[in-house]
Amino acid sequence: MHERRYSLPPFAALRAFHAAATRRRFRDAAESLGVTESAVSHQVRRLEDFLRVALFERDGGGVRLTAAGRRYLEQIDPAIRQIEIATEALLHPGGRSVVRLTLPPSLAASWLIARLGGFERAHPDVELQLVATTRVLDLRRDQVDLAIRHGKGAWPGVEAAFLLEETALPVCAPGYLALGDGEPAAGEPTAEALRRARLIVNTLSPDEWEEWARARGLAPPDLAGAIELEGAEQVLQVAEGGHGLAIGRRPVVDDRLARGVLEAPFGAGDPTGAAHYLCRPAGTAPTAAVRRVEAWLRDLAGRT
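Above: the chain sequence. Below: its structure as tokens.
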């Protein structure tokens, strides 16, 4: 019987390649590993010599994976991440598992943060870290386990599953459109009520008034003289202060409606065609802690 010979490359070289491939720059890989950029370059060349194939194309200050490099990364990435998980479990037996979740700040503030206490009581062994940002993060490169993203559900490099439908509806401070009885005049056409109001426009979604009006079969409202602000949170704060009529998006606006600081003078909202999706890096097996966070988020969404 012949003894099996193992053809494993040096692990330091594998770590350097993995860091450089997921971060796209040797400098960033070096910072993550706590070594010099030249050390990363040396280890990558060592791995290329071992494999007898080029893994990167050097391009000025950056690097780009070759076709062979992309295939190799896809095959070794799950194994390296599993080694990290196993090592963490041995280093911190009985400790809390960390799950990093990124989501838009507006959704975090209005929908999720107030509910975190329930998760912590149900899962004291899981530490849920929120990364609230408007940027679309690279989940692999930024070492994020889960994301809640807003859109149509198609992003490269992630597995996306529907989580929450989004609807849009005009909102304002209670009584803003009052004509004696606290609501738009009985029988007053919506278009007339819109003309009486000062509209608030979110410059990050400049077409949302037109889209809402068309969904209702109305002509797009005149935005001359509208208050223009950048971001949903600013828009809702100004509407809450009684300065105009804004487009609110459910579930982000639900908390303000429930507390009565905003009202929806024209009734229920209309689907926007977009939604919030629960995403994780494609091809990555979720840990038990990640699966528990996913189940909790789906339960919250179902109750919402």
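The first helix runs from residue 11 to 23.
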